[in-house]
Amino acid sequence: MRPNIHLGEQVRLCTRMSAFVGFLLVSIGTLALLRVAELCSGRHINRAPLVQRYCAVLCRLLGMKVQTHGTVTQDAALRVCNHVSWTDIPLLGSCLPLRFLAKREVASWPVIGWIARQIGTLFVQRGGGDFLKVQQTLTEALAQRECVLIFPEGTTTSGERVRKFHPRLIGAAITAGCPVQAITIAYHRDGQPDLLVPFIGDDDFVAHLPRLLRQPAVQVDILFHPPLTVSASDCPNQLARTLHQQVSQGLEALRENARSPTSHPANRASAHPAR
């Protein structure tokens, strides 16, 4: 029995990896052409619609079965989400047009780093060395009515719980007078939290990707909470606590729904916590 399972995993890996490499080549070619067109015309080309479609294709290639809960709006807002893996980015990018903040190390990843730079990702240096520059860039993007996603935990986790939200970048929404929407993401396999997708510790992309592609599809639940309006008098620390409570309650609801998928998690996690 085991050799057949092993053979099935190898076939799945080869098939998905081939499709993944082909997808990357097409993505690189398309983005390179867009860059050339920008240089020739001297005008910026909006990549958001293309990126959203490409993210949806990538999620299918990775074997992600996505179910969204709540209302996915296209309105400009700062989106905050718990962070489990690098796969969070294409998953959320497939739902709506977004600009992302990512750790500086991603910029050096083979191929993926170049793509991330081309789609307008904002890179953050661990330790906050360029925090003021990132905060200013984030505030300007929000003031221009762009949708930006940040992971306020500051790192990836196992997905079992939501770590404390750091308030400094969340405060950019207050400065820009922009709404904030919390998002909860959860990965499940056979009704239980998935242990393969989390990208934590000393793991690296080159080792993580084959492990992911080798396994059957994973269920991904994404819960969009009602957006919060902010004002200049709001406190970043309190706003961060409110958003953390929303995301934490959402994770509990998604876990319960995965165990007993009879009720909609948005009905149990959509209320605004007290601010």
Summarize the structure.
By secondary structure, the protein is an alpha/beta fold. It has helices at 2-41, 48-61, 88-93, 112-118, 131-143, 167-176, 205-214, 236-259, 266-269; strands spanning 64-70, 78-81, 99-103, 122-124, 148-150, 180-189, 192-193, 218-224.
Secondary-structure map:
Layout (H helix, E strand, L loop, with lengths): L1 H40 L6 H14 L2 E7 L7 E4 L6 H6 L5 E5 L8 H7 L3 E3 L6 H13 L4 E3 L16 H10 L3 E10 L2 E2 L11 H10 L3 E7 L11 H24 L6 H4 L6
Parallel strand pairs: 1-8, 2-5, 2-6, 3-4, 3-5
Antiparallel strand pairs: 6-7, 6-8
Helix pairs in contact: 1-2, 1-7, 5-6, 6-8
How would you explain this protein's 3D organization?
Helix 1 (2-41) packs across helix 7 and helix 6 packs across helix 8 (236-259). 47% of the residues lie in helices and 15% in strands. Strands 1, 2, 3, 4, 5, 6, 7 and 8 form an 8-stranded mixed sheet that branches. The model is unreliable at 271-275 (pLDDT under 50). Helix 4 links the parallel strand 3 and strand 4. The longest helix is centred in the N-terminal third of the chain and has 40 residues, at 2-41. It is globular and about 60 Å long. It has helices at residues 2-41, 48-61, 88-93, 112-118, 131-143, 167-176, 205-214, 236-259, 266-269, and strands at 64-70, 78-81, 99-103, 122-124, 148-150, 180-189, 192-193, 218-224. By secondary structure, it is α/β, with parallel strands linked by helices. It has a single domain, classed as Glycerol-3-phosphate (1)-acyltransferase.
